[in-house]
Design brief:
The structure is a single chain. The protein is of the alpha+beta class and 175 residues long. It has a single domain, classed as Gcn5-related N-acetyltransferase (GNAT) (Aminopeptidase, 3-Layer(aba) Sandwich). The chain is built from 4 helices and 7 strands. It has a 7-stranded mixed β-sheet. It is globular and about 40 Å long. The termini are far apart.
């Protein structure tokens, strides 16, 4: 996607990030949130990620925000320090056009450069084939499916777990 700029998210992007995420919450099953968070909440989430050094990216073309992605803590216990969980959301009008792939590829690179060793994808809904295939194409392998873990839109949803090693993975201790 030569015409798409990938860059670090900035505070000025939060209203567009909120809009993209709100659409995903209202119309999709990638997020198990039922009500979209407002700009204040999304600002707090953004600040928490960047303040602790996690990568947070946006994709932009001709001034339009197309999507966002970030890596955050997989779990809060100290032994998980070297493992991150990715999140990617794409504006509906540009889905399946390579924006998600470009964002995830860059997120993997940045996470590796920060010394993280594993990336976990926690994918809402086993019917979310696009996300599952995106992750598979970028080196994630299926870890398992947690059946019927969420209830949204009047039906039970699975959680799909995928994983990818970063850098040397588990071949050496973290630095």
């Amino acid at each position: 996607m030569a015409d798409v700029l990938l860059r670090a998210a900035k505070p000025g992007d939060i209203s567009e990030i909120t809009r993209i995420y709100a659409h995903a919450v209202r119309h999709g099953t990638a997020s198990f949130e039922l009500d979209p968070p407002d700009v204040t909440e999304m600002t707090g989430r953004y600040q928490a990620m960047v303040a602790t050094g996690y990568p947070y990216l946006v994709a932009q073309r001709a001034g339009e925000l197309l999507g966002f992605a970030y890596a955050g803590p997989y779990r809060m216990r100290p032994a998980y320090k070297w493992t991150v969980e990715d999140s990617i959301y794409i504006a509906p009008q540009v889905q399946r056009n390579g924006v998600g792939s470009a964002l995830l590829r860059r997120l993997i690179e940045l996470s590796e450069s920060k010394g993280y060793r594993q990336m976990i994808a926690v994918i809402g809904d086993s019917a979310n084939v696009a996300s599952i295939e995106l992750h598979r194409a970028l080196g994630f392998h299926m870890v398992g499916t947690l059946a019927n873990t969420g209830f949204k839109f009047g039906r039970w949803l699975d959680t799909v777990m995928m994983q990818r090693s970063l850098g040397p993975g588990a071949a050496a201790p973290p630095r």
